[in-house]
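Field reference: sequence -> structure
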Amino acid sequence: MSTYRILWMIPVVITSSAVAQNIVIDTNPIDIIAAAPLAGFNIERDKVPYQVKSLDQDALSRSGVPDALGALNDQIPGLMLNQAQDNPYQPNLLYHGFEASPLVGDAQGLAVYVNGSRFNQPFGDTTNWDLIPDIAIDQMDIVESNPVFGLNSLGGAISVQMKNGFRYHGGELTLLGGSFGKLQGSLQYGQESQDTAVYIALQGENENGWREHSPSHVRQLYSDIGWRGPASELHLSISGADNTLVGNGTTPVELLAADRSAVFTYPDQTQNRYARVQLSGTSDVSENMSVQANSYYSNLSQRTLNGDAAAVESCGSQPTLICEQGGPPLLDRNGNVVPNFIVNSPYLTQYGFQNFSSGGPYSFLNQTATDSNGYGLQVQISRQDNLFGLKNHFLVGASYDGGSTEFTAATLLGGLTLDRGYFGPGIVIDSADGSISSVRVHAFNNYWGVFSSDTLELTDRLSVTASARLNFADTVLHDQLGGSINGAHDYSHVNPAIGTTYKITPQISLYANYAVSNRVPTPAELSCANASSPCSLTNFFVGDPDLKQVVAHTYEVGMRGKFKDTIQWQLEAFQTTNDDDILFISSLTIGRAFFSNVGSTLRRGVDVDLKYRTSRWQIFANYTYTQAIFQNDLTLSSEDNPAADVNGNITVRKGDSLPGIPAHVIKIGGDYKATDTWTVGASALFASGQYLYGDESNQTPETKSYIVVNFHTSYQVTDNLQIFGLINNVFNANYATYGTFSPVSATPILQVPNVSNTRSLSPAPPIAGFAGMKITF
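Structure field:
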């Protein structure tokens, strides 16, 4: 094994000095990590009182093609992907029961950074994984709860470091094709010339999808221009994406039994157009002190279409009008009552529904448009010197992240095709009681933070780390349609942390840590916090009461070690309590919900991780136990849950499990270099069952536990040509990673007459094969 070990634990641009590049040259290499969003606060891993888990570019590409999310799901203990959308580019990432998700309706409990700057989107703190080209990622790190990382780091932070021309030299072209009509290509090139360097990466993919009506198209770009001087370095990076993603979500189990590729209703499409510019720099002010800074601007234009069943009917004694079930007549955007097209046939032609009578009942098409501008600045100063004769690592910094978002939404009433798709053009509708309404809101949010951290080495074996961050946040909402979405909200919180490490031997160390972190309600949550005016699952906002911020208290204790450079291991226990947690709670109106504080929730468990590496073998095995539970009694609405009472409510008791989080996860995998040119590898993942979303009272069965096995192999034909192949879900396991309940009574399913089971799952893809080649130059 090489005596050079380079670890880029936190995104940053680096200086040319060996210390700033985190390079340690020794016969016994030492892991050096940077314990802040911007590197410069460089400390030996054994002196950090929390866990940092990392994947470099080789680990991200172990299947032959770069796949960041797949590698995290296969290899990192405590981390799982679930497919609420059932699109490979739109998973919910869960770590120790906390989420980083592209869905505004999900509680965002992980902070995400790219190149040292905040990547959570301004409007809902969401993470759009499709905006990052896998091929351009140099390293990904998962950091346990640390207040220095700011808002949303309740369960920790995910740090993504992108490549640059100083780090990557040469070029690479990768092509991949196979099942489901998938065709993917990527190109990267990096070059260094004296004190400057350039890097560019392009990635694209077309896929038909294995389910009906589920094609996706992805186009991504990342580029970096760098300059390096004797004690300073500067980088300008530009990234962009133009993606159309279709993920048709869950399907009722009776329909899945008849046709596993079937979708319940459609379309469910997200179009993301994205641009981001970032300027980052670092400078060694003196031998012991350095300054790092970055600034960024981003723009996300997102458009969504979501087809749903329409729970509407003739208005009793007025059959010429349409009413919500048990509600008042529907209105159009001008306040006029909407006619019943089926009864008033002249309206069919007027509104473009010539074939409505043969199509079936009504359906809704929810449309949203989100235009967000994000911007920010972060500066930190780090100093490594002696304090009272003891080695000391000190950090102080400040950050600002802001956002401006224009959000619009509307519901169209149209027809439902025989295969449960929306057809129109339709009529924009509102309801007299406000449960359905058009929206246009302008949201502004500002996040400020001041942070500090200090690690004092009391002895060669014992170190103590103290950290703190002061967070300020304000959100302002302006209703553009004269409605009720107006308000200003201010939050602040001090988040301390204290931890210690102790080396039992040079190869084994203990650590313990306590940390406080917080997240504030997002503009999206504040806009949808009224139980009497719920919003749709595609984020309609019609009210503005206050929500409390979420405050998390995390305890962590563990042991880690290694045997020479062959075996590495870690054992950890963790516990996090969220006070005033926020959940997206179902409404009695079908397809609608609202955000609410629900008291305390608890997540605790154990991680066990083992790695073995020789010149021929690379093997990993890990196990995670997670208990995620409610800490107080609640009454929630879940009308489609068969265990709900006559009012559509369920009763949650203290100790009931949070939905969507498997208690037991085991991951095993490895690669074997059979010859100098041929490598084979495999991975297996076991996950126990989970309760369905909407079954917070745990009264219906969990999803089935499952085992999924993947295989890959590669052959180095020449120094510049590699061919590879992979098979996912080798044994064609039939499983699901996400489940909820669907209103099957409101939607006719011709394939399965008289459907009654409301359980609805996101099915995982069947066995699939892919092949590709990699050309380097």
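Note: The chain has six helices and 46 strands.
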